[in-house]
Amino acid sequence: MIGGGVTPALDEAEKVRRVYEREASNYDRNVKLPERLLFSGGREWVCARAEGEVLEIAVGTGRNLPHYPDGVRLTGIEFVPAMLEIARRRAVELGRPADLRLGDAQSLEFEDDTFDTVVCTLSLCAIPDDRAAVAEVRRVLRPGGRFVLLEHVRSPLRPVRGVQRLLAPALHRFGADHLLRDPLEHVQAEGFSIELLERSKLGLVERLLARKPGPD
Predict the structure, then answer these.
(1) What angle do CA 89, 106, 183 make, to 5 degrees?
(2) Domains of the chain (ranges plus CATH)?
(3) 38 CB contacts (<8 Å, ≥6 apart)?
(4) Tens of pLDDT along 73-90?
(5) Over the Cα atoms of the chain, what is R_g?
(6) Phi, psi (rounded to 5 degrees) for 52
């Protein structure tokens, strides 16, 4: 504890909640251009690799919902109530059965070995403790289960990374967004097997398919 108040992690979580509560009604409109420029086809790529019992962490406004294949049994968690409400409306409009509920990716309420696939798109950049979220993904995946990720990441190119460093403080302060994270580090540290890794857009965009080790 600091000064008898809340911990930095709780402060950061509340900051994320406040930012996205404020932006929820405009979120879909605001992300259209950056998604088209940087992440075109990414949501389709991720959802096409989902199978069986699927958990989406940080489901947001439900932008992935139209892209899941028929037959998956979808559960989604979201930390921000206003975003979750939009996602639920979208699921109804699409006729997409889904269990969408409030939840924290850093501390999932599910039992160990529950899901065949966990999906995360453009969310680890905002989750305060991204390492904890990846550890929780591993815990709730069944042995041999898939973790499918789309994210903006720290570029390996020095000039691009330098620009990211300049922009990072303002984007974190006003948007609760971390520009310099590299989820691959946490995925490898948690013992996942990397099956596919794609980098694009000057190393800013990462598509990742990893698998939890199966039984020996």
Answers:
(1) 95
(2) 8-211 (3.40.50.150)
(3) 152, 201, 204, 205
(4) 999 999 999 999 999 999
(5) 17
(6) 70, -140
